[in-house]
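Retry 2 of 3 after timeout on previous attempt. Resubmitting structure tokens to design endpoint.
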């Protein structure tokens, strides 16, 4: 049997006996801005805001979004005292979403991702919500950290979810996918921290309960007793994975329920056969020829499943280039790592810094967090030079700040472990104005040995423009030999250096017909026409924000996006909660002209096709001329005969506002998008307030 996608809720299903009801964890009810109308977009093309709800959630705490019938679900991010849990939202009226329930907040773990599905198995009939917990974050040093779990909820009655079970998942799960196949229901869990090849060096109180795989197949045919039945690790198949940052980040499954599209970060896309869910097998993979680090974040198949859309999550569009200029014996370009610590170079001519190097030792500042009461004395005078510092025992930011205190103009930090430069997390402190970057232990040894021999060393570091994470496409018609297409989608900020303040990477994709909807952090919701995956084009976008009391606008940071069959777009916003969008209506005609009777050939509509009392130009609305010849006459006649079955009929142009001269009724039969061909599912008929 074919897989059923977890998208639309089946009405009339009944829930099974549950383990217990959790109390509500946050304020419920109408949107906070319902009385004044939703905030208008900061910038938009072809999209409008239908409604907004802050979910009672603190700014910065909303994560992914999913939809099942008339119920939306959002997760929550690293918790604090102002955080509420995952939200269950009634969107029966998209103009007035209502929060029905919020799950309990775990003190250390959080729900990056939520998925829901309607299922009908021998053990359970109803709607299931999968809420995997990820993390940890905010853990006190003396805390006994409990293992993460994945929660399974019966949401058949979304106003009263029942917790069915919790599956221990050790280090946590970042993403999941739930699907029906035949008489069974399965969940794929993506657990980046659980791959033993990368995780066994960590000290965890619950290592014996870890998933021990970054892709796990769980049988939830009976969601009261979920059972892990299959595991897959890319490190077991691809030796090159040991040289990369490799883990399963997000996961998706094909329509037949037999193929996983695995987003494996720097390894790229891995296609995994789950025809036997207990024995996942690698079929093929594809990475990137143009750079070593791909950061493959999410993959979703396009209609027909011959091609996929791939989003890369990269938060820095610059690279560091470090060169030793002399002496000649060690001169040349050296591998470097920087991240935000290189930002001070943005203010320098040529985005570069050149100077003599000096070895100073460990170079820690005083930091109670690391039990360091006094700053390390420098081994040599660093005034006006680039300090060479050994990694370890305190923060990168602390080492760079201490270099500045000692008069250095820059700080190069030598890895204390074999291999490449250490990734330098975090960023400079507010009072730090010199750049810092990392190099490998081998390159550091060559520099310090030369310096200790009395030979001066001179170096240069500079910023090399690269790209924030953007959208790619791949041909997967042969899963054993997938290949990247030359096409891509970027935004203006993707390669802008220096970039404006904000987060300019792409995040999650959603596919609806020939359209791809992208959650693009600070760039908002972006919509692409992918009827030709080799030449995608942007057709719509909306950048959103919520006005603040001080007159500023808190800009969106869109995490997830999903659409429904009526053309509404639901977006989760890390900063602002939950948005409902729709296509902007075409401009109104002052005097719409009904379609002439002769425009429809007499043979196309038999006289008996319409009830005798029906007049399409009067009582039951009018037909936009633009759809004649593009939409089957039978579909038009069915809509005229039963207009109440067509979305939008006789509703105000903007449901959130009172009816009036500037907000007329929708009485014109049109297409959801006149720019795309008619399709009963993906671009169906819709009543609008006018025709172009």
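Retry 2 succeeded. Sequence:
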């Amino acid at each position: 049997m074919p897989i059923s996608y977890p998208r639309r809720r089946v009405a009339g299903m009944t829930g099974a006996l549950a383990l217990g009801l959790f109390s509500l964890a946050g304020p419920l009810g109408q949107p906070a801005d319902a009385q004044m109308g939703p905030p208008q977009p900061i910038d938009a093309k072809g999209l409008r805001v239908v409604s907004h709800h802050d979910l009672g959630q603190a700014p910065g705490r909303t994560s992914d979004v999913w939809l099942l019938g008339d119920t939306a679900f959002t997760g929550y991010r690293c918790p604090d005292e102002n955080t509420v849990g995952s939200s269950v939202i009634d969107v029966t009226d998209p103009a007035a979403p209502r929060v029905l329930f919020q799950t309990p907040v775990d003190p250390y773990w959080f729900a990056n991702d939520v998925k829901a599905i309607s299922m009908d198995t021998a053990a359970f009939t109803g709607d299931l919500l999968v809420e995997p917990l990820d993390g940890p974050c905010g853990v006190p040093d003396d805390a006994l950290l409990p293992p993460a779990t994945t929660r399974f909820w019966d949401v058949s009655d979304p106003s009263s979810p029942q917790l069915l079970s919790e599956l221990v998942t050790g280090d946590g799960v970042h993403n999941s996918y739930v699907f029906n196949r035949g008489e069974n229901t399965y969940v794929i869990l993506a657990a980046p921290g659980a791959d033993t090849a990368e995780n066994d060096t960590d000290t965890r109180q619950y290592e014996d309960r870890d998933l021990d795989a970054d892709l796990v197949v769980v049988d939830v045919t009976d969601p009261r007793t979920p059972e892990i039945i299959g595991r897959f690790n890319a490190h077991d198949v691809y030796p090159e994975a040991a040289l990369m940052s490799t883990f399963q980040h997000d996961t998706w499954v094909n329509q037949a329920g037999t193929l996983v599209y695995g987003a494996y970060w720097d390894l790229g896309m891995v296609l995994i056969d789950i025809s036997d869910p207990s024995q996942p097998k690698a079929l093929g993979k594809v990475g990137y020829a143009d750079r070593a680090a791909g950061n493959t974040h999410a993959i979703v198949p396009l209609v027909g499943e011959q091609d996929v859309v791939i989003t890369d999550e990269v938060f820095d569009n610059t690279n560091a280039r470090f060169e030793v200029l002399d002496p000649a014996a060690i001169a040349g370009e050296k591998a470097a790592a920087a991240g935000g610590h290189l930002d001070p170079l943005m203010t320098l001519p040529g985005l570069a810094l050149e100077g003599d190097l000096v070895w100073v030792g460990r170079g820690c500042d005083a930091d109670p967090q690391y039990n360091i009461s006094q700053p390390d004395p420098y081994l040599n005078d660093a005034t006006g030079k680039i300090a060479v510092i050994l990694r370890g025992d305190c923060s990168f930011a602390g080492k760079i700040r201490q270099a500045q205190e000692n008069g250095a103009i820059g700080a190069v930090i030598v890895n204390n472990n074999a291999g490449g430069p250490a990734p330098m997390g975090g960023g400079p402190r507010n009072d730090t104005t010199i750049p810092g970057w990392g190099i490998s232990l081998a390159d550091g040894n060559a520099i310090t040995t030369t310096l200790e021999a009395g030979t001066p060393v001179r170096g240069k570091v500079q910023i090399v423009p690269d790209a924030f994470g953007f959208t790619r496409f791949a041909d997967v018609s042969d899963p054993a030999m997938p290949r990247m297409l030359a096409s891509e989608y970027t935004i203006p900020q993707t390669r802008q250096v220096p970039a404006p303040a904000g987060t300019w990477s792409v995040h999650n994709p959603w596919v609806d017909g020939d359209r791809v909807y992208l959650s693009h952090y600070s760039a908002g919701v972006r919509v692409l026409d992918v009827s030709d995956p080799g030449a995608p084009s942007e057709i719509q976008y909306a950048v959103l924000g919520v006005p603040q009391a001080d007159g500023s606008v808190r800009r969106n940071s869109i995490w997830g996006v999903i659409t429904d069959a009526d053309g509404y777009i639901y977006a989760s916003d890390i900063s602002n909660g939950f948005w409902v969008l729709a296509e902007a209506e075409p401009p109104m005609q002052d005097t719409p002209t009904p379609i002439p009777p002769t425009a429809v050939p007499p043979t196309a509509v038999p006289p008996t096709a319409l009830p005798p009392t029906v007049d399409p130009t009067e009582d039951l609305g009018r037909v936009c001329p633009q759809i004649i010849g593009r939409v089957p006459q039978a579909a038009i006649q069915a809509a005229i005969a039963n207009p109440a079955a067509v979305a939008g009929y006789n509703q105000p142009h903007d449901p959130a506002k009172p009816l009036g001269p500037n907000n007329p009724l929708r009485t014109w039969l049109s297409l959801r998008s006149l720019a795309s061909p008619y399709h009963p599912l993906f671009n169906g008929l819709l009543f609008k307030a006018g025709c172009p």
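Attempt log closed. The chain has a mean pLDDT of 85.
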